[in-house]
């Protein structure tokens, strides 16, 4: 159980502008129980979201609207099916007679959901703001021993000087912005430093998966950053339509703080805040368990050394965060492009050039990969066939962008297809092309719950009482790589087809 449940039940923090807001959220999540899978020994916590007031609700009603509940119910399972770390949904209970006031009066709903842990970086933020160093230590110990299954499971330092390369670590993708995270290596690392490293690595892998599949959380404050590295609390989220590194699905994010390209650096910003909360513990080194330190904390005499050590550990963890992120991003992107091996040149020649092309021509990010999966090498043997094939990536109304003609747009895509074809032949030869296509289709989803689809589902459930569409879309979300789902063929093809022109890059609010 939690070490002190009165502090750890439904904590929410508001720091959307990048600064501490000093307040709690609505506290509507109700923890039911913990359980452990007897086969895998994986521990889960079950919750209800939207079931009413809790002692931590302040003035809020503790309810959730149907609209946001449907969104979380579908997308959490969709991400899981893609292999992206996420909280999970068990059920959704519609409450059409229970009215909830947000921007308007809406019907309510309750989502039953589970996760390995619902703790967030924001949980530590709150304790640091209160100056509760004893509970920070207790909570960190609980995370290591109960959530991560023991101190011995936590990682040691990565050999950065051997594992990183200048092409990946020192030159991140052009469509990702980074804060400066370089720094000298840490020393005298204790078990709390290893805990910090584990949390950072998990979040690095998760945000890499977001970037590779074009997913955006929309509100990446410390409260929405999981200690376990899970995607969670789905407010104004979205999957990318036309590739745009500046896109955010949050219509309140006027400064684009949480836009697509900023997600990795924002997650690291949040992890630095966690490092500050754990600073006393990770900076104490081998003295962390000495009786006087546990009782009295940092003395004025010891403070400079402890601060220096904590900063070194945070800096080194930042380097590891970058390396883990880039390695995971390269792995997923290589899989999406059908590559069996990785070359340093792939990063610029294939990955970055592809993203630049998608942005310049305003092409759909995820559709491109799925349609690429269907192309055989024989379809793109010559310059003429490559440029003719390029049109399958265009929207129904054609390509977008400024300064391109039909011929120049086809030529740009065709030039990239030529480079891709050469790498595929290098990896697969020409005799295994059908197998390459099969594997690519198992990595690149045909269906994703885009914003326009979710809006239609919500409208049909809320206004027309059409409950069946919710089940059909959930079935598609759970099996995103299928060619068909055997339910409603016309609806399936429409949901997997071109995003309606005026429903691309939709934005929504944080209200729920």
From TrEMBL:
Cofactor(s) listed in the protein's UniProt record: Mg(2+)
InterPro entries from the UniProt entry: SelO
Region of interest: Disordered: 163-185
GO cellular component: mitochondrion
Domain of life: Eukaryota
Pfam families with a match to the protein in the record: SelO
GO MF entries: AMPylase activity; ATP binding; metal ion binding
Annotated keywords: ATP-binding, Magnesium, Metal-binding, Nucleotide-binding, Nucleotidyltransferase, Transferase
Family: Belongs to the SELO family.
Protein's name in the database: Selenoprotein O
Native source organism of the sequence: Aspergillus kawachii
């Amino acid at each position: 159980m939690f070490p002190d449940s009165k502090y750890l039940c439904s904590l929410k923090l508001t720091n959307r502008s990048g600064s501490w807001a000093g307040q709690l959220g609505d506290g509507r999540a109700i923890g039911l129980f913990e359980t452990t899978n007897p086969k895998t020994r994986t521990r889960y916590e079950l919750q209800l979201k939207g079931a009413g007031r809790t002692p931590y609700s302040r003035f809020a009603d503790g309810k959730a609207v149907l609209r946001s509940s449907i969104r979380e119910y579908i997308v959490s399972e969709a991400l899981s099916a893609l292999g992206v770390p996420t909280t999970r949904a068990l059920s959704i209970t519609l409450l059409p007679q229970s009215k909830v006031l947000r921007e308007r009066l809406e019907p309510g709903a309750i989502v039953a959901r589970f996760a390995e842990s619902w703790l967030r970086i924001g949980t530590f933020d709150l304790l640091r703001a209160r100056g509760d160093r004893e509970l920070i230590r207790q909570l960190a110990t609980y995370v290591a021993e109960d959530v991560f299954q023991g101190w011995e499971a936590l990682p040691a330092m990565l050999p950065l000087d051997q594992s990183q390369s200048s092409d990946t670590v020192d030159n991140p993708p052009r469509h990702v912005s980074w804060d400066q995270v370089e720094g000298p290596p840490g020393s005298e690392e204790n078990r709390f430093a290893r805990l910090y490293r584990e949390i950072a690595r998990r979040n690095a892998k998760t945000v890499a998966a977001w970037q590779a599949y074009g997913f955006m959380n929309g509100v990446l404050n410390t409260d929405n950053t999981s200690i376990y590295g899970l995607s969670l609390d789905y407010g104004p989220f979205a999957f990318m339509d036309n590739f745009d590194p500046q896109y955010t699905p949050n219509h309140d994010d006027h400064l684009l703080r949480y836009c697509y390209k900023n997600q990795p650096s924002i997650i690291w910003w949040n992890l630095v805040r966690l490092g500050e909360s754990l600073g006393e513990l990770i900076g104490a080194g081998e003295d962390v368990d000495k009786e006087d330190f546990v009782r009295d904390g940092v003395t004025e005499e010891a403070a400079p050394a402890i601060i220096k050590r904590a900063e070194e550990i945070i800096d080194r963890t930042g380097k590891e965060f970058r390396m883990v992120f880039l390695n995971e991003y390269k792995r997923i992107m290589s899989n999406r492009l059908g590559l069996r091996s990785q070359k340093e040149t792939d990063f610029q020649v294939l990955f970055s050039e592809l993203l630049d092309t998608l942005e310049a021509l305003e092409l759909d990010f995820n559709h491109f990969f799925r349609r690429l999966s269907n192309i055989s090498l024989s379809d793109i043997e010559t310059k003429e066939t490559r440029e003719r094939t390029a049109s399958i990536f265009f929207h129904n109304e054609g390509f977008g962008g400024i300064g391109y003609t039909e011929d120049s747009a086809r030529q740009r895509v065709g030039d990239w297809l030529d480079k891709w074809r050469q790498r595929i032949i290098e990896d697969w030869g020409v005799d295994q092309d059908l197998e390459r296509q099969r594997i690519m289709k198992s990595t690149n989803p045909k269906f994703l719950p885009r914003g326009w689809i979710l809006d239609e589902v919500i409208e049909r459930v809320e206004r027309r009482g059409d409950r069946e569409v919710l089940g059909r879309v959930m079935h598609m979300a759970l099996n995103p790589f299928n060619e068909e789902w055997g339910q409603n063929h016309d609806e399936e093809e429409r949901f997997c087809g071109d995003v309606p022109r005026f429903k691309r890059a939709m934005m929504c609010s944080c209200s729920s």
